[in-house]
């Protein structure tokens, strides 16, 4: 069964604005959320004690799997026909570079460090997210595109 996840935006927006809102805005806002959260010198204080059972690397994989999905959607549907041919590769590359810059950013935050294993977990998450989303899309398990003229 195919699931449609996008709702049409009003026709008062141009096609470019609709594409920006549908594909680019979620990726950019989510990347901003990652930077905001990584700017906190003590992020563990925001999570309940039950959260401690999750390893930090699992959190990184999950966090960047979402970013990988959002980047895949940008390159597959929001960046034109050229990039859509390489959307998985571009999504992994973009999310990976973002993960690297986030680790560098964390090295300047008090009580935080840049961790190579966190970067590896970020890239693993981006890989899992973008490949999984592509598979769901290509096999028709999810409908993730609104046909627009």
What are the key terms here?
mainly alpha; 5 helices; 149 residues; single chain
TL;DR of this structure?
The protein has 149 residues and is mainly alpha-helical.
Description:
This protein is mainly alpha-helical and 149 residues long. The protein has one domain. The chain contains five helices and no strands. The protein has helices at residues 15-38, 56-77, 81-84, 87-106, 116-138. Helix 1 packs antiparallel against helix 2, helix 2 (56-77) packs across helix 5 and helix 4 runs antiparallel to helix 5 (116-138). The radius of gyration is 17 Å and the shape is globular. The mean pLDDT is 85.
How many domains, as an integer? 1
Low-confidence regions: none
| N-to-C SSE string, H for helix and E for strand | HHHHH
Classify the secondary structure makeup into a structural class: mainly alpha
N- to C-terminal distance: 25 Å
User: Helical segment tally?
Assistant: 5
Q: What would you call the shape?
A: globular
Q: Sheet with the most strands? A: none
Tell me how many strands there are: 0
Rg value: 17 Å
Mean pLDDT: 85
Helix content: 55-70%
Strand residues, percent: under 5%
